[in-house]
Amino acid sequence: MFRGVAVVVALVAVTLYLSVGHESQYIFTPEEMKAIAGEAIAKGEGDIDKVVELVVGKLRAAHPEFIEPAGEWIFNNAGGAMGSMLILHASFSEYVIIFGTAIGTEGHTGRFLADDYFTILHGEQWAHSAGTLQKEVYTPGDQHFLPRGTSKQYKMPEECWALEYARGNIPSMMPFGLFDTFFSTLDVVTLGQTVMTSAKAMLQNAVLKGKI
Hints:
The protein has 212 residues and is of the alpha+beta class. The chain has one domain (1-209): Jelly Rolls, CATH 2.60.120. It has helices at 2-18, 30-44, 48-62, 174-185, 188-208; strands spanning 74-78, 81-90, 94-101, 105-108, 114-123, 125-128, 136-138, 143-146, 153-156, 160-168. The strands form two sheets. The protein has a six-stranded antiparallel beta sheet. Strands 4-9-6-7 form a four-stranded antiparallel beta sheet, with no helix packed on it. The longest helix has 21 residues, at 188-208. The two termini are 31 Å apart. The model is unreliable at 7-16 (pLDDT under 50).
């Protein structure tokens, strides 16, 4: 009896996991992110604090129900790189964050069941795909697209901030975002902040707003 129930629960969980990340579940678009970033960069005139404030304000005006209220910045260690992030939206099929560093970092992008759009707000990001001999360079207003199933090496040589938007199977990205904590930093405070903020937003969007 117990084994049968366990099998059913497992099948339901797998079905729900695999059903995440379809066009009908998305409320944001890469084009919107690029447009909002471009407007904020133009009005911010190089002041990153002002640019971030403008980006958050424009997103909140466009999606008042789905952009998180003012939250706290959280460190993020993933793929060997370190930066900090401000979570603006987290659901099972999408996330929107401000991510970056004031001093530079370098690491692995990860390889996901999701598309990732990284729109530069300030500074530069460099990237390298295996087999290419020249680096890619992304500057303010550029959108670095990482298709699902692919990966790169990336570097922010100095201060760099970006508006990051991912769409697809977001739960599949979580291990990459957390494993450095278990096997390197052991920063349980950051782990707790990341899990609590992400899980709370995902569940609220799914249960209270019907947003997968």
